[in-house]
Structure formats: C-alpha cells, structure tokens
Amino acid sequence: MVDPQRLTAPQIAQKYGRKLTTITTDWTQRPAFPDSIGRDGQHKTYDAQAVADFVRDHIDRPTVEWETDRLYTAKEIEGLTGIKAATIRADKNRGRWPQADDTSGRADKWLGSTITTALSGRRGYHRKATTEDKAADTKPEAQVHAITTLGAAWQPGDVVLDADGNIRVRSDHPKWAWDYAFEGSVRDHTGGPAVPEGALEEHDVPRPLTLLIRDGQPVGGRLIKE
User: Fold this and answer.
1) What is the spatial distance between Cα 20 and Cα 200, in angstroms, rounded to a whole number?
2) Torsion-angle region of 221 (φ positive above 0: left; ψ -120 to 50: alpha; else: beta)
3) How far apart are CA 197 and CA 179, in angstroms?
4) Most exposed: 18, 26, 109, 123, by fewest CB within 10 Å?
5) Would you place residue 197 in the very low, low, confident or very high pLDDT band (cuts 50, 70, 90)?
C-alpha cells in the first residue's frame, strides 16, 4: 500500500506535472531539497510535506511586489526570487544584469523599479542582441553554431556543473546549446520543437562551469575558463 506521506521521484514528477529528469537532475540536486527518508524498492522516498514546502518556496514562488523606490541587496533579491546572489553578481559583470543603483555601502543595491525591469525580460537573463547575433540568425545552422559555441571550450556531450549547482550537458544544437543532463544528451537539431523542453541558450547557464565528463570519461571536476 502506498504511503501518502512519502513520495518517490517518479511520484513527485507525476504529482507536480514535471519530467522525471527534471526531478532527478535538478530538484533533488538543490541544497534546499529535502533529504531522503528511506527507499521504496529502487527509489528513494521523500517526505511529501517537505517536498510541498520546497515547491512552494523554490519552484512556485509567488510574484514579488517590488517597492519602486526601495533599495535591495543581492541577498535580499535571492531571498525573494530564488535567484542566487552569486548569479546576480556574475551576470552584472557580464552585462546581463543592470549595474547597481547604490554602491555607497558594503553591498551593492538595486531599486525595486530596476529589478522589475530586469526580471521582466528574463528567461534565464536575456542579453541584448548584438549586431553579430542578428546576423547569425540569417546564416545556415552550421555557421550559427560556430558563433554560439565558445571556440574549443565545449564539446557536444560535455557534462558540466553550473554556478547554481545544476548539472548540464552540452548539446549539438545551434541555438539551444545546453540541456539538462540525461534529457536527450546530444540534442538532434534536424527537427523537433522550436524551443525544446529543458533546453537553454548559451547565456542562460550561470557561469563559471566546471567540466565533469568529456568523451564519456570523468575528468575529476575541472573549472574551465572561457
């Protein structure tokens, strides 16, 4: 008889309408996800209420009503949105998050109005399209792929750990360069949906990336400078 107070990863996927790989390679890898409380055959089990609390706090976080003229630190933004402070700081350095409105203290601060604008255009964090990016959209896929890749830094099939602690795999798609691990591995770009589920563009994956597997072999965790 199924214990309604305990859920396996497949049951969590079914309950919350997510793919099993999303649960096993994303949710359960996050520090905030509850620890296993046992096993049901080959699957670990998790406290159902603890999982519900995790989903409420980290997945289905309600929309934040930002106070327009109030200043927020990166840690405060993390607490309200779940976007890690380290990701905000890294993306600010790359031009994918606005510069702070107040730099007078020990911690940078952003106005609520600035944050609202930044988040309104975010899928990951969208960078502004450059002339090169727009030109690439008119080129054959092989040429676009040469632009979206990072030279020789990454190879299709590479498995990495991103700055937020998520495991990703390098795809062979000219636009959706990264995927959740074990969700199709090297993605076939000859067909399929326009925006594959779980797929990420180059700039949507939080840096730095640590290489875990290359050519099917573990490499011991190597930070790659891009």
Assistant:
1) 18
2) left
3) 9
4) 123
5) low
